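Assemble and predict.
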Amino acid sequence: MTSPQTDLTAATAGGAGADDTAEAPAATQAAGAVQAGAGGTWQALRRDVGAMLGLGYIVLVTLVAIFAPVLTSISGWTPYEFDQTAIDPNLGGMPIGPWGGMGAEHWLGVEPGSGRDIFARIVYGARVSMSIALSATLLTTVLGVSLGLLAGYFGGRVDLVVSRVMDFLMAFPALIFMIAVLSALPASNRSTLLVVVISVFGWPYLARVVRGQTMSLAQREFVEAARAAGASGARIVFREILPNLRSTIIVMSTLAVPGFIGTEAGLSFLGVGVVPPAPSWGQMIAASVKWYAVDPAYFLVPGMCLFLLVLAFTVLGDRLRAVVDAQEGR
Amino acid sequence: MTTDPMLLEVRDLTVTFPTPRGPLDAVKSLDLDLEPGGALGIVGESGSGKSMTSLAIMGLQPRAARRTGSVRLRGRELVGMSEADLRRVRGDRVAMVFQDPLSSLNPYYTVGLQIEEAYRAHRPGVTRRAARKIAIAALERVHIRDAAVRVNHYPHQFSGGMRQRVMIAMALSTEPELLIADEPTTALDVTVQAQILDLLQEIRRETGTGLVLITHDLAVVSEITDHIVVMKDGVCVERGAVEQIFTDPRHPYTQALLDAVPRIDDEIGELRAVVPDAATTSPATENTATENGGPA
């Protein structure tokens, strides 16, 4: 007493090879299309004008930050030099010349009151902004990914503790706390302190997403299969789950950078960021506020630089997300 | 049976979940026996505890669950074994194949790398190159053409049937004594299903690997197993040789399962469902059926 399916089986048993044959061309075709996942993302991104403009600006700022000493030696002024000849003491230290003293001598004009070269300060300020934002991104990514993986994979009490800490940090009035901490602690190593403080409040946003995705990935059968094949917990987390979070982590981190640049500038603007005379874009904007009516160029230059950098990272992150989403939806 | 120990000997296996309304037995006092090289089918509807049984054999039941009883693999007790020792058994002595072959493969890695990793995890000291050869041989064994090229492909570049072949290749790479296949053909269409069953049968004949096949499809078990255990609500309601179950089902639930299989010589009309009320019987009947069943 057998079912009809059994009969069908007998009829099709001879066709075992047919599956292979039918599949061969499709497989070859697919091989070309998705041979390397990372390569595909880059190909798609390269066709995107916005993403490429953003990336171009980011690369430009990065190069400027790296070669700051070279650039200032070409322009001839360091960020700490006072040029008394470029300002008019009779007008309260207003820069001489139109547009805040822009010209062949001082490419982006000079600071009113002191006569320091704005180009040099922007170039060195890029170092501060980029290094703080990138270090903070790195630290938040490490913290967010590891704690998110931990909470998502192990669940239970670990998840409870990590999740409550995340809730607490996200509900906390972070800016006020940052201002308080940064003004209370000695200003000897402000940059490191800034990175640490920004990261402590920044990681939950990534960890929350990583935790959720880990939870859903941990339910997937390939994790079950890995466990059935004798894989240990650490192996499953790092070899099976983590690689599948790659695109999420890249997108989230790229989108976090502009936030950190803004935070650093904001804290410097509020006077608790980078310590003067070290230049920073936020600090320059803060200083320019007093002069905005008489010397708008002084405000405009660092303002534009900051605005474009934040915009560039945001657009790049957004387009990257669109590309990755489209690929994963495949 | 000679003095040779049973390949798999499960006694009084119980998996209990704590629920707000008290403990719930997903598997209750289950006994299973499998001779070396034998094939056992576990049949039952969704929620009958058949998948939980397979996970419990491997010690992979959910953390919340409690497992009691005895699971012996060639006389070696697996219940109460340390996690580290269990990991050495899993994937090496006992391998598993799951229902959905796409989600059972990690989309991030090529199939070759996944087979190599699974193999190397149990054979420390094997070089990448040697493992690669094993992976290619494993793919050839499950009749994947151009295995040397296909090892470098990603899971999404394979069709459903081919992916299940990859899973089987991976499971067999360490030459396990026991292969547990949990609904291996459910996600596949009927023709591919037949090919996979043929493959399992062929491998069992050639390598002498014992097979536990879990399915809700009676046609599938009739195909390749010698003995059947019918489960319902975590309890074995009937057991016996394939022919006996199919020709002379003792338990009303088995009869209901058999009746629910649509047949080609049936009149066109409604499909018969396994009606819970008709199939549910008192525990006394269940026991009788279990005891009356042939030796498994």
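Chain A is about 75% helix and 0% strand.
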